[in-house]
Each structure stands twice: as C-alpha cells, then as structure tokens.
Amino acid sequence: MPFFEFTMANYYFRSTKFTIVPEEINSPEQQKKIMQEQFATAPDEIIRCAELPEHHALLLFSANYADENGNPAIIGEGDRPIIYRHIKRLEEISEYNKAILDFDRINKTSYITINQGDKLMMANSFHTSDSASTLYFLLEALRQKQINPRQTALEIYGTLYKSELALFKSYLKKADARL
After folding, report:
1. What pTM, to 2 d.p., does this model score?
2. What are the E-state strand segments in 17-152?
3. Are residues 74 and 101 in the same domain?
C-alpha cells in the first residue's frame, strides 16, 4: 500500500519502482522497456514519467499499486513518487554538497537523493531494516560519488530517535530532521 502525502495539487507516494533516464528517452515504448528490464512489471502496468528539465532527465515510475484492500489501483495523473519531491527539494538547499534521506521505518525502505552543486548525483531507494543500515547506505553512496560526508548537508525525513540522529550528526557536516 503506498503512502500518499498531499502537497499543493499533487500526491506523493512511496514506491521503489522508479528510475531516471536522459530526457531523450521520451517514447513510451522505450520507457516501458527500460522499466521492464529493471523491475518486475506486469505487461499491462502503466509507466508514467515526470520531467526533470534542470537535470535534462525524466523520472520513470510505475502508476500501479495495491490499495489498502490489496486490490489493483492506479495513481492519479499528477501524482509522483516521493523521490520526485526530494529531487526538487534539493534545488532549494544552498549548500554545495547536499543530500536528502527519507527513512520509512514502517516499510523498511530508505530513499536517498544527492546533489553536488546543481548536479543530481543519485536518486535511489534501499531496503533498510533500521537506522544503522540507512546510515551505511547513505555513507556508501557518498563514498561512491566521492563526496565527503563532513562537507555534506543532510535533510532527514522520517522518524529517528535522538540517539539515532546524534549518530547521523557525528558523520555529516549538518543533519537536520524534518517532518
């Protein structure tokens, strides 16, 4: 069951079925093929895209989900995965190295987005059983992108206990918890 969050005219839902592709991959057939190669998708699954013009990219995502009763459903036309909101939020953070971590304790999933300057370096999701594994994936992603955690501002969405937040703050330049 996706989690929906209402903001302005859009709903943001939690899904791990998304990928970012160059904006030149604009045919629905190409987009569906890419999603089928990366995820277990049904033949009738609806693939949508959201433009990320500042990154010359498209965010591809599945519009299908199971509702609270387990019945097949399709998200609305203007709805976007939560990762889209985080990618857009990075544009508003003034620090050069910046990251957003969304820790979904209930669904055991973490969403991580990283920018260096105006360049989107990463937008991904990971299965994480606890805050320690979430921190591991974040630090590993920064290491792979050769970004120093001590020079990275981090916004954290989700629920962290004070001791968990303190651990994050010990590794990063700035770690702020948001709701």
Report:
1. 0.89
2. 18-22, 47-52, 57-62, 64-66, 72-74, 80-81, 97-104, 109-116, 119-127
3. no
Structural domain harbouring 30: 4-80
User: Using CA atoms, how far apart are residues 17 and 63, in angstroms rounded to an integer?
Assistant: 9
H/E element, 157 = strand 153-158
Sequence-ordered list of residues with C-beta below 8 angstroms from that of 70, at least 6 positions apart, any chain: none
- CA Rg value for the chain: 16
Does 42 share its domain with 98?
no
Residue at token pair 């019945």:
71
Cα separation, 8 vs 28, in Å, equals 27
Query: Does any domain span residue 46?
Result: yes
Burial per residue of 168-178, b for 16 or more beta-carbon CB atoms within 10 angstroms, e otherwise: beeebeebebe
Q: Identify whether 87 is part of a domain.
A: no
Q: What is the pLDDT along the chain (179 residues), one digit of tens a residue?
A: 445 454 444 689 889 999 999 999 999 999 999 999 999 998 889 999 999 999 999 999 999 987 777 788 888 888 999 999 999 999 999 999 999 999 999 999 999 999 999 999 999 999 999 999 999 999 999 999 999 999 999 999 998 999 999 999 999 988 888 86
The CATH number of residue 170's host domain is: 3.30.420.260
